[in-house]
Each structure stands twice: as C-alpha cells, then as structure tokens.
Amino acid sequence: MEPAEMPYEPGELVHVHHDGDSEGRTHRFGCEVLSVSEADEVNDYTYTLFSFGWERVLATDYRHSQLYPSPRGYPNIDEFLGDGHVQGERLLGKFKRRDLEVIDECLTMVDNEADATKDWFNELRKEDVDRINSVFAELVLLYHLRTVYGRKRVSLNARVGEKDFDLRLTTEEEDVWIEVTKPDFADSLSDGFAWGLPKTTQNSIDRKLKSKFEEARDHAPEDAVLILGIYCEEQINQGFAMGQWLDEEYYDVSEICDGWLSYTHLIDTQIGYQSFTDAGERCRTLFDRMVEE
C-alpha cells in the first residue's frame, strides 16, 4: 500500500502502514484525520488521528509516509469501486486493516465486468455493517472456490425460480448451488454469553432455508445439489448452536437442503461440513479441497 500523492485533509480516512519488520503492534483500525501539521515535503506532513476502533484520539501523530487512504489505498478495492465516490465506501474504510487486506486479496478472483456484482454495490450503499459483512462472507467463499476450481466453474447469482442463489459450482460430476448466510453472532454477545445463546445463528439458518431452499428445491435442475454456506465468526460456539438446532428436528432439512458448509477466515481458513443426503455427501471432497490446496 502506498501513501496518497497529496496531503490528507481533515475528515479523510486512513490506515497506518504495517511494517512486518517493526517492533511492537501497528494500529490496525481505520482512522480519521483530525488535524494536519504542514512541512516542506509531503512525506514529512504529520497528522493527528481519531481511531474508530478505540473511539479516541491516538497519542502519537503519524507522518504522511506512514499512512495510506482507506479503503481506496487497497488497489483491488479501488478498482472494484471504480471512479467517483460510492455511497458506503466511507463505512468500509473504517474496517480493520486485516479485513480490508482479505477483501483486497479476495477481489483478485472477481471479474468486475463479467461477474454479477450489482447486489454487492446495493448492499454497500445501505451503509450497514451487517450487510457489508454479508458481502464479505460471500466474497471469501467465492475466492476459495475459484482458487481451487477456476473462474469458469464458479459463478455468481445463479437464477433458480424467482430467486438467486449466491454461488454455483459446476464440475464434471456435480452441479452445486450455494446460498450464503452470515449470522450476526457478535451482536448476540453484547448482553452476555451462555451456551446455546446465539439464537441468531439458528434463526438465520431457519430463515434462509425457508426463504430460499423450499422454492429452489422445486425449481432447480433435477441433479442440482443445494448447499447452505454459513460464515462463522466463532466456529466452536456457533457450531454448537447449529448442532443444537439440528437436534431439535423442527423439520426434515434433507427434503430441501443437501448439506451445509460452515467456514471462517479469521486465522486460517477453516471449514466444517454436514451432509443431509447422498448427493450432499458426494460433495464433501469438493469442499475439502478448499483447505487442502
């Protein structure tokens, strides 16, 4: 990432450049420029910053050469957003550096002209963190699938009936349709925690199955394999909640869904897979390759 060519102005968003060889921890949250101290050279300008993550002014002022614009300093994000301001990009710029690094990398697998990304822009324009995170969840899975199977085999927004499925993977043996959900698990912890608390995980799964999979099963190709992709912020506790929901046996999930794939990117890519039908079980090796390669 490179600093901007011109000095930053108050109100602009930046990230602090992370030097892997430097000692200590580099500030990782998006920051707003509060004040500017001018100098003879642009790179010697210094800035007072407000951290959105810490919700306070940082004690240290930073030189221009230590900062880069957020989110436009990330080249693939900048190319994806295109020319001109996009409503919602300021909220995206407040995200942590690591999250934007992941998004920037994942966008290498997106064709801005050929892929159906209109829905992503619509979600960004809502200026809602949860909606941006939902796009993030879809993008992460798209990246891993295309890394293994290539762009031609993995498409966005596959039409089934009157609705779209987020992703479609076609191999010589299988035709896999994937709908992605991201339960807002972290929000459910704000008032405390106990085993089985994250009802948001269970409710999100139930809503998605009823809103998309019931109709899809009636209209999808006969050999289509329908998979629910569940992005997890916390694999252990959310996995417990998902197992608990299945144990209740509210209805026969296998009648509408062949399996579900849980995954996260927070440290290394981790996946969990639960099949409900023979067709779903055949797809297990397809998803295992996401972490093997």
From TrEMBL:
Record's keyword terms, sorted: Plasmid
Organism superkingdom: Archaea
UniProt name for this protein: Uncharacterized protein
Source organism per UniProt: Salinigranum rubrum
